Fold:
Amino acid sequence: MADPQGNNYVVAVGLDGSESSWKALEEAIQQARLKEALLHVVSIQEAADASYSASEVLAVEKTSRAKLERAQLQAKERAKEQGVRVVTEIVDGSSALAMIDYVKTHRVDLLLVGDTGHSSIWGALIGTNVEKIVRHAHCSVLVVR
Structure:
């Protein structure tokens, strides 16, 4: 997808505020610099657990969104310090599915994600978000440890 400056290469990174997602951001900034690419910093706002009351759901989602907004702002500042063109977005949905849809819709060439996941037993039962993204994303995926 061509961006406004005419560069066709698009790098994206998933940022949830975890240590591994910050590592992925640093690598994404380097990849974007090398490729003179536009960097998309994408955070996913997942719905709160349905077992909460309506007021608890609203409080949890508001707190979570505020955390993601702060992380997005820090990421944008970091990328700009490195001379990288950057856009940020918070998307509502399920982590893996929302990210897979985002990279397809925005014609991302390279997606970077942190290596976070469930325990090996939990991951074996349902698969981690990272595994789902690697299996189903249409673009190359770099998992950063």
